[in-house]
Write a structure and sequence with these properties.
Elements (H helix, E strand, L loop, with lengths): L23 H12 L20 H36 L1 H12 E4 L8 E2 L5 E13 L8 H8 L13 H9 L6 E7 L1 H8 L2 E2 L2 E2 L3 E10 L7 H4 L11 H5 L1 H4 L6 E5 L5 E3 L13 E4 L3 H18 L3 E8 L4 E8 L18 H4 L9 H11 L7 E4 L2 E4 L2 E4 L3 H4 L3 E4 H6 L3 H8 L4 H10 L21 H6 L1 H8 L8 H12 L3 E2 L5 E5 L5 E4 L6 E2 L3 H17 L13 E10 L5 E14 L6 E8 L6 H20 L7
Length: 636
């Protein structure tokens, strides 16, 4: 029983209990008033029992009100519960069910490596490999930082600042924090194994952590970066065939569904044996790595010599559109793509247009011959300089050669006469000329399988037909723009008997035995010139190399057809630059049995022309092509 201080006064020796009065009922109430502070109730004088306040009707009404109030509260509460239950179980049931599934289940795909990419000979160009990132946790070191740094320094590829050694750099990193310090990434398996076996005084080194990752690896580095592209940190291709052929490079794998167990762990549902199956398929390209290397070396050498801004080289098999080489400079290393400017990632052979200049003259001659308005021996007067609609058009060598006078179509092409080409194309109606250009695909793309290809640019029909100067400038390759890839495609039509093939770098998926599993469908070649026309144009182009502007492309024992180009570079604000030029040369070999088209385009060289800058590059590439494809000497 708890202590109550009210009883203390009754324990006092001076306390006197009240005397009983003889009335037991009254004495009882008196006692209760002393002990429990009760008061004597009022007693009815007539019945001798305690009196109650209030009337009976009022008491009954109060009781009923209380019952109704309680009932109303219960009913309202029940109704609220019913409404809320209906809202949760019926109205929001689908959303809540979906939310529960999202919280309790998880769908994911198991990691599987991307398919490798190989060249036409099976040489690996891109493959997934296992790499490691090394982290340090100095607070867990059981040995001195100096001893650990001394062991690690010879193993790791560490970028050093001037005056720093590998050991001092490691010590600097160890002092950056107590845990989670990144020491090196992209470590090969053999390096990771050596780090894992590290010991000091026969005891393992603690405080080092190796985290395994998958990485796309390009063993040839920049060799085919313009074609391959790269894969980012989220395993998605961002350029080249890594981007355009993403669906072929990613292996198809069903998703695995996980459910949360009672203890909160994720447990896979219905996972059967042999669920993850890797095929042995490889994405094979048409590229030849040996030719690619030769083309890049020749291009870089000439660009450095002439201080050029950029350049590209393309080699195509005109019989089927296979691209044996696509080189663009400056390039980048796809293994370290994050260290390069964004402009490096695009292959400007397909992403940028330029005015082809004189390299388009052979195409124009073929158009006129196909229309039947000229023949190789048709004669025109080459004045060297003419005026059309107030514009001056003259030959590039007018100051030195002047007017050449009567010249055949073959001679006009041989000397790359601008004035002569204006006369040649004036034999056609402007509307027919424009229609022929559209038939060749100007204003469209070459439909290659390299990504981000842009369309060529041609003036609208009304402007072309109604302005005489438009058709005149188009005659010598200016006033419109195409990509280097489309120029190769058009010259391929001259080499294969008049068929417009689709340039491509992808052959398809092949297994380890070299058997085709799947090949990309190709468009049916479009006949744009007759074989007779292309044969005559090739013969005229051969004269360009033998005794014209393309002498630098000559190869002893081989018949080479070609065409040079030196065009003023268009300004972004309109008009043409007085200094910036684009030089180019397109070659076709062998001229007696045309098959291969080689194009070199050099942007903004400091001095030179298509014959002195681009033609030597094509000659070097053709020599490599002769060796690789074992092409015999031409028959005279």
């Amino acid at each position: 029983m708890s202590y109550d201080p009210r009883f203390d006064r009754y324990r006092s020796p001076n306390f006197k209990r009240p005397k009983p009065s003889g009335d037991s009922q009254r004495d009882s109430y008196a006692a209760r008033s002393w002990w429990g502070k009760a008061t004597k109730p009022r007693v009815s004088p007539s019945f001798g029992r305690p009196m109650q306040r209030g009337r009976p009707g009022e008491r009954l009404k109060t009781s009923k009100f209380r019952l109704w109030a309680v009932w109303a509260v219960l009913m309202l509460g029940g109704l609220g519960l019913a409404v809320n239950l209906f809202y949760l179980q019926v109205t929001r049931a689908p959303a809540l069910r979906k939310q529960a599934q999202q919280q309790q289940t998880l769908k994911t795909k198991p990691f599987v490596p991307r398919r490798p990419i190989v060249d036409r000979a099976g040489n690996v160009l891109a493959i997934d490999r296992q790499v490691y990132t090394l982290y340090a946790h100095p607070k867990l070191f059981k040995h001195s930082k100096g001893d650990i740094a001394a062991l690690l320094a010879p193993m790791l590829p560490i970028e050093l600042s001037p005056g720093m050694t590998a050991e001092t750099e490691l010590l600097r990193r160890f002092n950056l924090g107590e845990s989670g310090i990144t020491i090196a990434d992209s470590l090969a398996q053999e390096v990771a194994d050596r780090v894992g076996r590290m010991q000091i005084k026969n005891s393992p080194v603690e405080g080092l952590e190796l985290v395994r990752q998958q990485q796309r690896f390009y063993p040839q580095q920049e060799l085919a970066a313009d074609i391959l592209g790269y894969v980012d940190g989220e395993r998605k291709g961002q350029a080249g065939v890594e981007y355009s052929q993403q669906n072929l490079l990613e292996r198809s794998m069903p998703s695995i569904q996980f459910s949360r167990s009672i203890n909160g762990n994720w447990v896979p549902d219905r996972l059967t044996a042999g669920f993850v199956q890797l095929d042995d398929l490889k994405l094979q390209l048409t590229i030849d790595s040996r030719l690619q290397r030769a083309a890049r070396i020749a291009l870089k050498e000439k660009m450095k010599k002439h201080g050029a801004k950029r350049g590209t080289v393309i080699v195509m098999d005109a019989s089927n559109g296979e691209l044996l080489s696509v080189v663009a400079e400056p390039s980048y290393d796809p293994n370290q793509y994050f260290n390069f400017d964004l402009s490096r990632y695009k292959n400007w052979a397909v992403t940028d247009v330029y005015e082809p200049g004189s390299t388009f003259k052979a195409i124009n001659v073929a158009i006129a011959m196909e229309a039947g308005t000229v023949k190789p021996n048709t004669v025109f007067n080459d004045e060297g300089r003419i005026y059309i609609d107030g514009w001056t058009i003259q030959n590039s060598d007018y100051k030195s050669a002047g007017a050449r006078g009567p010249s055949t179509v073959s001679e006009i092409l041989k000397h790359s006469s601008n004035v002569g080409m204006v006369h040649v194309m004036s034999t056609m109606k402007s509307s027919l000329y424009y229609q022929a250009l559209q038939k060749l695909g100007l204003g469209q793309t070459a439909a290659t399988d390299l990504p981000f290809e842009v369309t060529s640019q041609l003036k609208n029909r009304d402007q072309f037909i109604n302005s005489q100067v438009e058709s005149a400038t188009t005659a010598f390759g200016q006033g419109f723009s195409i990509t280097p890839m489309q120029l190769v495609q058009l010259n391929g039509a001259l080499a294969n008997g008049g068929k417009l093939v689709t340039p491509h770098v992808v052959r398809g998926l092949f297994d380890r035995d070299g058997q085709a599993f799947w090949k990309l469908p190709r468009a049916v070649p479009k006949q744009v010139f007759s074989p007779e026309t292309t044969k005559q144009v090739i013969e005229m182009m051969e004269g360009v190399v033998d005794g014209g502007t393309g002498k630098a492309a000559q190869i002893s024992g081989y018949r080479i057809a070609g065409k040079t180009g030196t065009a003023q570079k268009a300004n972004a604000s309109g008009g043409y630059s007085n200094k910036a030029i684009i030089t180019s040369f397109v070659g076709i070999m062998p001229a007696d049995a045309p098959r291969y088209v080689v194009l070199a385009v050099i942007d903004e060289p400091k001095g030179g022309s298509g014959g002195t800058v681009a033609a030597p590059i094509v000659e070097s590439v053709m020599e490599a092509l002769i060796s690789i494809e074992k092409i015999g000497p031409s028959k005279k």
